[in-house]
């Protein structure tokens, strides 16, 4: 597959075909891709909420400024962060390393303790901002995988996160919504699908030393 060709094919889809749905296989690919996203220290302080139920998406629509991608796409992906990163998150991560890689406690202990100290030095707001950075990495990864899989998508920051958190009961899950990614298939009459990409010339975008 020509990855550059696929990235040129990709665009921020403005109008989805509401009759076309992702197969379970395609959806599983996106789940796996999200879980395999690189995150700082590998802590994975982000979660992916997949919303398919039409009634839920209709209730979310007004809080995304009535952008129809929310309801017309096959699925709405909501990328969330943890409300906080706690010591047990770090401990659980290193226990996972121990189980999967069979790494000894002697090797893991100093790394675990250093990471706990680092997190404790941050405020809650700083830890949330740190997690948001990971959410953007996940968004970029998902968009690229969508392009490779011929899945249309539209990254969205324009929504009222507090209302999404309320409707989706995210506070009960210890989560906060930060990004949306409707995914599905473009409508044949989405005029934006044929627009040429507008980008700077490579020599203006890239610096080589």
Topology readout:
Blueprint: H1 3-9, H2 24-35, E1 46-51, H3 54-60, H4 69-72, E2 75-82, H5 87-101, H6 105-121, H7 124-148, E3 152-153, H8 161-167, E4 175-184, H9 202-205
Antiparallel strand pairs: 1-2, 2-4, 3-4
Helix pairs in contact: 2-7, 5-6
Can you put this structure into words, describing what you see?
The chain is of the alpha+beta class. The chain is 47% helix and 12% strand. It contains nine helices and four strands. α2 packs across α7 and α5 packs antiparallel against α6. The protein is globular. The two termini are 30 Å apart.
Following the backbone from N to C, one meets helices and strands in this order, namely: HHEHHEHHHEHEH
Widest sheet: strand ordering = 1-2-4-3
Number of helices in the DSSP assignment: 9
Beta-strand share of residues? 5-15%
Shape: globular
How is the biggest beta sheet arranged? 4 strands, antiparallel
**Alpha-carbon distance between the termini?**
30 Å
